[in-house]
């Protein structure tokens, strides 16, 4: 629809006023030569299309005005000349951005009117020009209004998409935009329309608007007599003519904390980050890769430090839920009286000390993602029943809540306890055990993982050296020997700790026994005693000689120069040293 059409009624009334004041008839035709406004004889011809060889058409084509006061040769070219009743007319182009989009005409249908126009030609032409100017201005206004409406809709659309509360104020601190998240956070029982143009202080009592711009501020706002802890920032937006508005963006502090926790857990770990080539670990990785693409409930069993959390994260990050949250909760590390509210959340006022606005539980936070229930064997038996319902019905009810909330989570649980034994002893619900143990994944302990201890050591040492800004280090032969004999009750976590100690205290490129924590060194002595009891004195002498030579070569180097030094230290000839090395 053309802009002229949009302002048709307004222009009709303008035309009637002008016609009355000047004693002429007025018409406006649009770009398609359709008459859209008309007074007098023109009125009955509204919506008629003018001839395309008419004067209207010519003004449209050339963009030049025409004054035709005598029905002279100008009219002869018009195919409508025989039925035309006009005695005189003047036509002016209506332009928008330099383009002619219509025409405005003054015309007379009786001789008296015509002689008036002829008499006051200049004044009439001036009025015609001014009236065309009014029409053009009106078009600009309607365009601006349309654009503003569109901009407002766009701004609203944009700010509604933001996952933050956004309020925009004008220079009188009145709300001119507010997004749905803000309405939700403020929990104000008032419609969007009713809040617009109301002063911000009516809703947020103690908001400080004169703060440093763009800085994140943590503060307590009073909303509906509730104190709410928020983090907010204010940006000043300068509009034309020194008009400015303020944009307040804010969040509940508790939401931010939950978000941070969620992201902490969402550290991107994939199967490729799980180090190991032993058949036992490869079996676990392959099984996990297959189940990652499904939504099945998984139970990861393994001793402490075997990588249960690492597996849970990899499964999540390589599952269709990878873009959703990964929320971990350790059932053993939270005091028993807090587990229920941590897991299931609570409604406001559910118990003394509860957050006044209620709180989402971890399961609810994991909606559309994965909940990782670590150390599930430590979940108190009365909560096992509640968890069972979550697994069966996929709904939760918050503490003190009256309604069930639908949730869509994948459950991965982990344990280092023998759940089957716990079931037999009545410490774990059998039905819950079956629900959790749909796909069991068993993680092998480090001791049973063949040479993985060295592969893992290499990987861990490399990342530790990078972290500590040290040159690349290697395990000495003695340490390798110890590592392969040690039981590793703390599995990979223990290996990480032992190596951190080693890297920290090693002064050259080898990590030696003396660089390791003392309890491991004692372990070595225990092994020595075992060995002493098992071997003859002659064998022990050979072993000792071998370890001394190895150590000295590690210290002075494998070069001829290094070996000369070693022979000197041991007060033996170089040939004897070579023979011993060969032996
Ligand atoms: N295969 C592996 N490759 C690399 N790092 C590993 C591997 N397995 C475990 N780790 C590392 O060992 C440490 C312990 O792993 P994780 O926390 O996943 O074990 P866990 O079985 O969940 O332990 P816990 O039962 O004590 O909670 C982590 O730092 C982890 O990155």
From TrEMBL:
Assigned keywords, A-Z: ATP-binding, DNA-binding, Nucleotide-binding, Oxidoreductase, Transcription, Transcription regulation
PROSITE patterns: SIGMA54_INTERACT_2, SIGMA54_INTERACT_3, SIGMA54_INTERACT_4
Sigma-54 factor interaction domain sequence ranges: 274-504
Class in the EC hierarchy, top level: oxidoreductase
Pfam family, one: AAA_lid_14
Any one Gene Ontology BP term: regulation of DNA-templated transcription
Top-level taxonomic group: Bacteria
InterPro entries given in the database record: AAA+_ATPase, AAA_lid_NorR, P-loop_NTPase, Sigma_54_int, Sigma_54_int_dom_ATP-bd_2, Sigma_54_int_dom_CS
CDD domains recorded: AAA
EC number: 1.1.1.144, 1.1.1.243, 1.14.13.48, 1.14.13.49
GO molecular function: ATP binding; carveol dehydrogenase activity; DNA binding; perillyl-alcohol dehydrogenase (NAD+) activity
Protein's UniProt name: Limonene hydroxylase
């Amino acid at each position: 629809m053309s802009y002229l059409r949009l302002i048709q009624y307004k222009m009709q009334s303008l035309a009637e006023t002008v016609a009355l004041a000047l004693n002429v008839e007025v018409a406006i035709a649009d770009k398609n030569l359709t008459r859209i406004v008309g007074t007098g004889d023109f009125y009955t011809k509204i919506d008629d299309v003018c001839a395309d060889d008419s004067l209207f058409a010519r003004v449209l084509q050339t963009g030049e005005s025409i004054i035709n006061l005598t029905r002279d040769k100008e009219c002869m070219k018009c195919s409508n000349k025989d039925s035309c009743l006009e005695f005189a007319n003047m036509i002016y182009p209506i332009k928008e951005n330099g383009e002619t989009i219509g025409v405005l005409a003054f015309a007379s249908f009786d001789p008296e009117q015509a002689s008036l126009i002829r008499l006051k030609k200049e004044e009439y032409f001036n009025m015609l020009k001014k009236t065309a100017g009014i029409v053009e201005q009106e078009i600009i206004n309607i365009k601006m209004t349309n654009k503003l409406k569109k901009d407002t809709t766009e701004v609203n659309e944009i700010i509604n998409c933001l996952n933050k509360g956004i309020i925009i104020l004008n220079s009188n601190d009145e709300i001119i935009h507010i997004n749905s998240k803000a309405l939700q956070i403020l929990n104000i029982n008032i419609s969007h329309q009713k809040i617009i143009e109301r002063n911000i202080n009516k809703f947020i009592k103690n908001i400080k608007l004169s703060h440093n711009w763009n800085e994140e501020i943590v503060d307590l706002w009073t909303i509906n007599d509730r104190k709410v802890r928020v983090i907010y920032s204010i940006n000043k937006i300068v509009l034309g003519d020194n008009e400015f508005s303020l944009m307040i963006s804010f969040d509940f502090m508790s939401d931010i904390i939950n978000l941070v926790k969620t992201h902490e857990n969402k550290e991107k770990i994939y199967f490729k980050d799980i180090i190991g080539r032993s058949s036992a670990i490869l079996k676990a990785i392959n099984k996990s890769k297959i189940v990652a693409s499904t939504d099945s409930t998984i139970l990861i069993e393994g001793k402490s430090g075997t990588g249960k959390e690492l597996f849970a994260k990899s499964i999540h990050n390589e599952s269709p839920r990878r873009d959703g949250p990964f929320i971990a909760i350790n059932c053993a590390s939270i005091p028993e009286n807090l587990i229920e509210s941590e897991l299931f959340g609570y409604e406001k006022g559910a118990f003394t000390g509860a957050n006044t606005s209620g709180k989402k539980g971890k399961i609810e936070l994991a909606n559309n993602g994965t909940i990782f229930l670590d150390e599930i064997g430590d979940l108190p038996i009365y909560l096992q029943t509640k968890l069972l319902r979550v697994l069966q019905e996929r709904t939760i009810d918050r503490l003190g809540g009256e309604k069930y909330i639908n949730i869509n989570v994948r459950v991965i649980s982990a344990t280092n306890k023998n759940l089957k034994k716990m079931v037999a002893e009545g410490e774990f619900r059998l039905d819950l055990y079956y629900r959790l143990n749909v796909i069991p994944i068993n993680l092998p302990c480090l001791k049973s993982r063949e040479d993985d201890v060295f592969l893992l050591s290499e990987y861990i040492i490399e990342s530790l050296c990078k972290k500590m800004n040290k040159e690349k280090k290697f395990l000495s032969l003695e340490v390798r020997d110890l590592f392969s004999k040690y039981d590793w009750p703390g599995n990979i976590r223990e290996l990480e700790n032992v190596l951190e100690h080693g890297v920290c205290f090693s002064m050259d490129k080898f990590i030696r026994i003396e660089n390791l924590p003392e309890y491991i060194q004692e372990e070595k002595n225990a092994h020595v005693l075992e060995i002493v009891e098992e071997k003859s004195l002659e064998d022990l002498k050979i072993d000792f000689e071998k370890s001394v030579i190895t150590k000295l070569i590690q210290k002075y180097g494998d070069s001829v120069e290094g070996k000369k030094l070693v022979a000197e230290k041991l007060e033996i000839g170089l040939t004897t040293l070579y023979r011993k090395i060969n032996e």
